[in-house]
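The instructor's notes for this session suggest beginning with a concrete chain rather than abstract definitions. Hand out the sequence below and ask the class to guess, before any prediction is shown, which regions might be ordered.
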Amino acid sequence: MANYKRIENAVNRFITGDCENVMKRLPAESVDFVLTSPPYADKRDYGLLDGMISPDDYVDWFMPKGKQIYRVLKENGSFILNISDKVVDGFQHLYVFELLLKLCKETGFHLVRDYIWYNPATPPNVYSRGGYGRTKKSHEYCFWLAKGDTWKFALDPIRKPYSKDMEKYLQGQGKGNRNQNTRPSTHNFDCEKVWADNGGSDPGSVIEIANTSSNDLFMKLCKEQGIAHPARFPEKLAEFFILSGTDENDIVLDPFSGSGTTAAAAKKHNRRWIGIDANADYCRLATARLLQEQKQEGQ
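After discussion, reveal the predicted structure:
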């Protein structure tokens, strides 16, 4: 069994094993940031005997892992949990919200912001027919949780390009004051005011990223070796949180590393990383993915 008493022994590698047990071997307060997307409840096969977790059992299954995440995080560290729910017996199950409450009330995390990842490429499904009393679900949750009272956050790396209207305000060409514009809000669009140029706008809490071509290289490797991987989130989603919540050389941990997307995004932006997955095939292919990406970049 590998020795991870020094966190450097675990950095920049994929570790095969149950993430709870592996994290127990990591030093306390040794990780700057955790970003992960755990297995979906009851509907994904991750090639493991315990890969299918019932919604009713999900909270109890995850909580011991959440406590280890809390333990290994530094005091100013953050934990990003990307998770989705499902309909059970005709109604949306509450395990996502039950888990969030327990992570905060029992483990000690603080909820910084609830983000919505909107995937406009969500294909039509059984709900799109209209016979089940709801629309298709085209979003997942990304909960930003902090361990302590302060946490790292940088807005500039994730700013969105300004709209054409906003560019007019930056040039002092607004639409007039409140007397000239009847608006639902009380914002003053004074045409003489020159708005500050911050290099882009605040992206808000809805992240729109189409999950269409994520992990192309990894999927090619899977097909070549006859290995299926059921769920992948886009690298741009990982980049959104890594760029805003970490500094260069910080350690980013993904306890359910799967295809290695978190590691790839961390490496790309000069962060150190640790990936853990119980499926040895995923760890092997994720390692091959990063090596091939490195060759393609000519590094």
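Then share the key points. The beta strands are 13-16, 31-36, 73-83, 87-88, 91-92, 110-118, 139-146, 206-208, 251-254, 272-277. The first helix runs from residue 19 to 24.
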